[in-house]
């Protein structure tokens, strides 16, 4: 077998699924968790893919701060809304079920919204928005997260990197899918930089002294010790309108916590006064809107497509050959990876081999191993 850092989709999906099962996640749920995790890699979002299998999900299950078995409890419901308690189960399973609930309500009543409490990290927000799009709906979702972003004029990491994510069906091959944090960068990207030995670009992270921080490994420690904070979208201070990112991160924090009366801001640090790891009961929200309840799905798709095409066809900046719309680059990455698989960096390769050996999954031989 020729050595390669690329693992085909079937192998990596089965492996990740089995690893979740070995950690106590029931079969069907393990399939959902693997699907959400690997969708990140399919779209080229390395920060939230297989990179995070061990450090986020397995380590948290092992530390007893996240339950492998998900108890999805609907605690309040109307025709168009619901509040769900996830009981610290698997965030991906909770997110999947909650968005499905919002979609069913939208299909029946035009709109549906589900607020979730006591959840855990749900991975890429775009997965859930895309679920709605695949059912012919507009999908909107957000989540709070452990404290990372400093408010404008502050240096304390207070807000999560809080993605605010929108998916829209169009008449094109791929949807409009705007899926990003409300900070310039997010923790997963800094983790990825640390894995591949890269500094974090200046302007994304500040220390308590207000000065830039760029050492990726150190930033991750400092975020936990409250000695670093991420800049909101727009950056530090008011000059490039960082208060807009700060404002949107706050919107996500409010919608994630206040509708379901859950924890927020520093209460989600996941670390107690003695430095011990504790659960971070996260909140999410999921909204589905059925364009059929307005002027019709086909009409919506057509107008949406026209807007996107007009944007892409507008005049390019000097030296630029192409204008993209949100979701397009991810679609292109998928097309380029579809037949091959996921590239795995050396640091993650070691983790996968170690997991395989520890869990007795000897039937998996990865293409990056020595023969
Ligand atoms: N669960 C959590 O707590 C959490 C928190 C933060 C982020 N995340 C996830 O992390 C992932 C990455 O977030 P990020 O902030 O690093 O995203 P990012 O900065 O890479 O931005 C990605 C978005 O920008 C669009 N985009 C990129 N280049 C573009 C261009 N030239 N023109 C038009 N659109 C363009 C992409 O299509 C995509 O929608 C997301 O999936 C997000 O949901 C999760
Ligand atoms: O890591 C987190 O706590 C949230 C998010 O996934 C991020 O990468 O910032």
TrEMBL record:
EC number: 1.1.1.37
Database matches in Gene3D superfamilies: 1.10.1530.10, Hypothetical oxidoreductase yiak, domain 2
Classification via InterPro entries: Mal/L-sulf/L-lact_DH-like_ah, Mal/L-sulf/L-lact_DH-like_NADP, Mal/L-sulfo/L-lacto_DH-like_sf, Malate/L-lactate_DH-like
First-tier enzyme category under EC: oxidoreductase
Xref: SUPFAM superfamilies: L-sulfolactate dehydrogenase-like (SSF89733)
Coiled coil: none
The UniProt record lists the keyword DNA-binding: no
Keywords: Oxidoreductase
Keyword hit for Oxidoreductase: yes
Molecular functions per Gene Ontology: L-malate dehydrogenase (NAD+) activity
One Pfam family, short name: Ldh_2
Protein family membership: Belongs to the LDH2/MDH2 oxidoreductase family.
PANTHER family named among the record's database cross-references: MALATE DEHYDROGENASE, OXIDOREDUCTASE-RELATED
Protein name: Malate dehydrogenase
Organism annotation: Herbinix hemicellulosilytica
Taxon lineage: Bacteria, Bacillati, Bacillota, Clostridia, Lachnospirales
Gene (UniProt): mdh
């Amino acid at each position: 077998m020729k050595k390669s850092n690329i693992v085909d989709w079937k192998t990596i999906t089965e492996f990740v699924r089995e690893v979740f099962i070995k950690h106590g996640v029931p079969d069907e749920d393990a399939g959902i968790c693997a699907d959400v995790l690997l969708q990140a890699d399919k779209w080229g979002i390395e920060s939230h893919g297989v990179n995070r299998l061990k450090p986020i999900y397995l380590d948290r299950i092992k530390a007893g701060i996240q339950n492998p078995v998900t108890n999805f409890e609907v605690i309040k419901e109307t025709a168009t809304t619901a509040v769900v308690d996830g009981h610290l189960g698997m965030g991906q399973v909770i997110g999947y079920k909650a968005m499905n609930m919002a979609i069913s309500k939208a299909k029946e009543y035009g709109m549906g919204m589900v607020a979730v409490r006591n959840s855990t990290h749900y991975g890429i927000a775009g997965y859930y928005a895309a679920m709605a799009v695949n059912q012919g709906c507009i999908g909107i979702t957000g989540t709070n997260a452990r404290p990372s972003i400093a408010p404008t004029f502050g240096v304390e990491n207070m807000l999560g990197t809080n993605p605010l994510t929108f998916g829209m069906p169009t008449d094109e091959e791929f949807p409009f899918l705007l899926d990003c944090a409300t900070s310039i960068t997010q923790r997963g990207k800094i983790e990825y930089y640390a894995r591949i030995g890269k500094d974090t670009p200046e302007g994304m992270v500040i220390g308590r002294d207000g000065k830039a921080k760029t050492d990726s490994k150190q930033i991750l420690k400092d975020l936990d010790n409250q000695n670093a904070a991420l800049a909101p979208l727009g950056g530090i201070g008011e000059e490039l309108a960082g208060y807009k990112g700060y404002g949107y991160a706050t919107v996500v924090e409010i919608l994630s916590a206040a509708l379901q009366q859950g924890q927020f801001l520093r209460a989600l640090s996941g670390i107690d006064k003695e430095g011990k790891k504790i659960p971070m009961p996260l909140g999410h929200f999921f909204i589905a809107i059925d364009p059929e309840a307005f002027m019709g799905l086909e009409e919506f798709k057509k107008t949406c497509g026209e807007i996107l095409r007009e944007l892409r066809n507008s005049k390019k900046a000097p030296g630029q050959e192409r204008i993209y719309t949100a979701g397009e680059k991810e679609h292109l990455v998928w097309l380029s990876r579809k037949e091959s698989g996921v590239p795995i960096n050396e640091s993650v390769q070691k983790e996968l081999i170690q997991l395989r050996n520890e869990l007795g999954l000897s039937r998996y031989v990865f293409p990056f191993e020595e023969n």
